[in-house]
Amino acid sequence: MKLSINGIKNTTDWEKAGIKLPSYDVEKVAEDTKKSPVWVHFGIGNIFRIFIGGIADSLLEQGVSDKGITCVETFDFDVVDKIYKPFDNLVMAVTLKEDGNTEKKVLGSLTEAIKAQSYLQKEWERLKEIFADPGLQMVSFTITEKGYALKDSKGEFFSFIREDIDNGPEKATSAMAVTAALLYERFKACKAPIAVVSMDNCSHNGEKLRNSITEMVTEWNKKGFVGNDFVDYVNNEELVSFPWSMIDKITPRPADSVAKALEEAGVEDMSPVITSKKTYIAPFVNAEGPQYLVIEDRFPNGRPQLEKAGVFMTDRQTVNKVERMKVTTCLNPLHTALAVYGCLLGYNLIADEMKDKELSELAANGGTKAFARLYETVYREMYYTAFYTLCDDADAVELVTASARDGMTTVNKLRSEDAFRAFMFRNLCARIRTKLRESPVQPVPENGGFDIRAEFSRLSDAERLVASMYIGAKLQPDEISLFTGMSSTAVNKTLEKVLTAFELD
Question: Which of 191, 201, 402, 408 sits a CA distance of 20 to 30 A from 38?
Answer without folding.
Answer: 201
